[in-house]
């Protein structure tokens, strides 16, 4: 048992000195005929338009296409240059990722939901010299948007459509590929935008490959197993954990293009997937799907989630309905991305109430405002150090220095508590803390209690300016049915929380704004409250 909130790195599992390209070559050499990648697409697929497109690749075929993609990239771009990919979950995204890794090209991942100004910002800030994109997705003419921003970006030399791209690269002549090292930059991933200002985290091969392997090891993923995923590839959970993690276990990745409950459940059934991972909102949607019980999900043994607080009731319901064990992950993009995780063999209370112990090779400490390590059980900021820390924010040295100190410790900006066994419990965001009349109030504590009210489908708590108290507590709820009265919610909270934690202001919304990984964007709610756009709950 430890007495201070410091976890020394567990070095029993080695860091993988591999690039993503070397990982693919190693797996393809060992088992070239194993199915590596399967596409599951809805009607109106982003590339084929077909109602169902189960294209698939063996590891041998995936490596061959990745090497052709690397040759294609190498004929247009130099090692170290930045090329963006703007597309949903399509197999070509995975091929491009491996191709860029083999060619030494740094992939800039862009959310396909970005609007024109947002895409322009990412391409400009990352100094991308190329962008590979789908022509359209979910009614958005992405080709037209790319054409519109190209003239305003002098660094952008090439724009390439993914339509027919996989067939096109098969005619590319082989070429000598550069030497790529594990510590070289692999991707620039833009932070979630929960504060409204995205920064490009430069992630390296060593961090992404090793972290993905560790996460699946902690989850108990079997060698040669199947992971069915709808996690977005533009995020580290998709292109890192899903793609690289599955490959590190010689498994099959069933890639679902868009999160549609029927499509996901069908993929889990058809491929008898061992693992499904999703943000809490995905689990809520799956469990609420009317046809859930009609699917045979007996092959699914592992459920994973993270991104934001995972309510204990949701973990319990998911484990019971799926007949599987839950693993909860905690991390952020800057950490490649996972820092701590529960194991599927951990006790029930730990699986439902903590985010587990730090993964191998990671140092973690919880400190006070002066940087001193706190005793176990005392709340403070979570800091991390290890192989998976980003190189920094691209072209933002001051922002990098603000979060990574001279000794390599990364300030997560998250508040948490460590117990005597090293298990972490994340209690909130430092920036989200509400200071009401000198009292520190943590929104997550209130949100979790609100989540237990049957009339609340979703909730976010934040501070709003107050001339007398400095800040007051405000809550935004999404009703689960008829809108509950503020007095009813007030009484529900007062039964378990101190009076000063009870919201003074109540609002109703149709949905809680969140990024693709489920992290709530409270800055959007503040803007909507300030503009008078949310209904006041009486």
TrEMBL record:
<dbReference type="InterPro" id="IPR000873">
    <property type="entry name" value="AMP-dep_synth/lig_dom"/>
</dbReference>
<dbReference type="Pfam" id="PF13193">
    <property type="entry name" value="AMP-binding_C"/>
</dbReference>
<comment type="similarity">
    <text>Belongs to the ATP-dependent AMP-binding enzyme family.</text>
</comment>
<feature type="domain" description="AMP-binding enzyme C-terminal">
    <location>
        <begin position="445"/>
        <end position="519"/>
    </location>
</feature>
<dbReference type="InterPro" id="IPR045851">
    <property type="entry name" value="AMP-bd_C_sf"/>
</dbReference>
<dbReference type="GO" id="GO:0006631">
    <property type="term" value="P:fatty acid metabolic process"/>
</dbReference>
<dbReference type="GO" id="GO:0031956">
    <property type="term" value="F:medium-chain fatty acid-CoA ligase activity"/>
</dbReference>
<dbReference type="Pfam" id="PF00501">
    <property type="entry name" value="AMP-binding"/>
</dbReference>
<keyword id="KW-0436">Ligase</keyword>
<protein>
    <submittedName>
        <fullName>Fatty-acyl-CoA synthase</fullName>
    </submittedName>
</protein>
<dbReference type="InterPro" id="IPR020845">
    <property type="entry name" value="AMP-binding_CS"/>
</dbReference>
<dbReference type="InterPro" id="IPR025110">
    <property type="entry name" value="AMP-bd_C"/>
</dbReference>
<feature type="domain" description="AMP-dependent synthetase/ligase">
    <location>
        <begin position="25"/>
        <end position="394"/>
    </location>
</feature>
């Amino acid at each position: 048992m430890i007495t201070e909130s410091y976890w020394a790195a567990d070095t029993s599992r080695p860091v993988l000195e591999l690039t993503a390209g070397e990982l693919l070559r190693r797996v393809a050499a060992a088992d070239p005929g194993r199915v590596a990648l399967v596409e599951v697409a809805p009607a109106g697929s982003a590339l084929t338009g077909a109602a169902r497109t189960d294209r698939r690749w063996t590891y041998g075929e995936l490596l061959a296409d990745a090497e052709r993609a690397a040759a294609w990239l190498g004929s247009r771009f130099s090692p170290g240059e930045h090329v963006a990919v703007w597309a949903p979950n399509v197999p070509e995204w995975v091929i491009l990722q491996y191709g860029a890794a083999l060619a030494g090209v740094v992939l800039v991942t862009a959310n396909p939901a970005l609007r024109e100004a947002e895409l322009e910002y990412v391409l400009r800030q990352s100094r991308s010299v190329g962008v590979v994109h789908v022509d359209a997705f979910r009614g958005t003419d992405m080709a037209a948007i790319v054409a519109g921003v190209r003239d305003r970006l002098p660094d952008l030399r090439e724009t390439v459509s993914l339509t027919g791209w996989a067939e096109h690269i098969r005619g590319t002549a082989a070429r000598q590929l550069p030497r790529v090292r594990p510590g070289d930059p692999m991707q620039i991933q833009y932070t979630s935008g929960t504060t409204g200002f995205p920064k490009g985290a430069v992630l390296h091969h060593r961090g992404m490959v090793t972290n993905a392997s560790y996460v699946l090891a902690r989850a108990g993923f079997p060698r040669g197993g199947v992971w069915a995923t709808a996690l977005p590839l533009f995020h580290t959970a998709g292109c890192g954990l899903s793609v690289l993690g599955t490959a590190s276990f010689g498994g099959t990745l069933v890639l679902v293009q868009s999160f549609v409950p029927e499509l996901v459940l069908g993929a889990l059934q058809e491929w008898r997937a061992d693992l499904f991972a999703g943000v809490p909102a995905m689990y809520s949607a799956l469990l609420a799907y009317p046809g859930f019980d009609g699917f045979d999900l007996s092959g699914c043994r592992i459920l994973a989630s993270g991104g934001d607080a995972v309510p204990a009731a949701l973990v319990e319901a998911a484990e019971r309905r799926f007949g599987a064990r839950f693993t909860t992950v905690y991390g952020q993009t800057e950490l490649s991305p996972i820092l701590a995780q529960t194991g599927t063999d951990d006790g029930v209370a730990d699986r439902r109430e903590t985010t587990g112990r730090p993964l191998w090779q990671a140092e973690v400490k919880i400190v006070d405002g002066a940087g001193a390590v706190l005793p176990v059980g005392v709340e403070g900021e979570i800091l991390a150090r290890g192989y998976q820390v980003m190189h920094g924010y691209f072209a933002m040295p001051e922002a990098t220095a603000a979060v990574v100190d001279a000794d390599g410790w990364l300030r997560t900006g998250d508040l948490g508590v460590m117990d005597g066994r090293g298990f972490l419990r994340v209690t909130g965001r430092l920036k989200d803390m509400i200071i009401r009349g000198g009292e520190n109030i943590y929104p997550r504590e209130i949100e979790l209690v609100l989540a237990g009210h049957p009339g609340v489908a979703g909730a976010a708590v934040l501070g709003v300016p107050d001339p007398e108290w400095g800040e007051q507590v405000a809550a935004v709820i999404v009703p689960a049915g008829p809108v509950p009265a503020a007095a009813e919610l007030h009484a529900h909270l007062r039964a378990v929380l101190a009076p000063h934690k009870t919201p003074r202001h109540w609002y109703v919304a149709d949905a809680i704004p969140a990024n693709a990984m489920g992290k709530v964007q409270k800055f959007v709610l503040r803007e909507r409250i300030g503009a008078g756009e949310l209904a006041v709950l009486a």
